[in-house]
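Students often ask why we bother encoding 3D structure as a string. The short answer is that it lets us treat folding as translation between two languages. Here is a chain of 216 residues written in the first language.
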Amino acid sequence: MNRRTSARVLPRKEREKRARQEEILTAARALFALKGYHNTTLEEIAHHAEFGKGTIYNYFSSKEELFYGIIDQLTAETVELALASIRDTNGTAREKLTAYAVAMISHARANAELVNLIIREINHVGDGSDDIRMKIFHLRARKVWETIAQPIKDEIRSNGSKQVDAVRLAAMFDGMLRFHCIAQYGKFRLLENENIAQAVSSIVSVFFDGIANYKE
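And here it is in the second language, the structure alphabet:
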């Protein structure tokens, strides 16, 4: 094992701690999505995770802390989706952003009930004064934009085109995706069509070609 690989290996106790945290969060995600935040108790989460309630308190101080832990997971997953989509897709910026769009919409569909719960409850959990936690969430959003902005930057540079703010463009693209997910999988299901490929094609077409050249 080389030095770089060994440096990434966590001590056994830390690995066990993180594994238990993940088990608790997985149980909380399932129950919050099924019953809602306010109708789920810590006792139920502990039972679902097959731990005693006291074990929960070893890792999370409250149900509110668990709620924010789930948001933390989801935002981290979004960053990983962006990194993997850009890293593992060959081709143009359009192809790379298409891969990201497919991953994002698929992730939103798979976690629709949980996302709806967060949208519904985010302003009712805690006092809204946790600036450090919110700063982390904002930094992760920025990480997503910077990641999907890179192929845009590369393409602009290779084509010798006029320099633009690629991160701002990436934020716009990401915003289109997220609003689509809310409309498609949100509480009121404002969009009836659930064809991911068609949705991605439409969003990518509008972003890269403009509305004037848009073809459904």
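Translate back mentally: Residues 131-159 form the longest helix (29 residues). Keep this in mind for the problem set.
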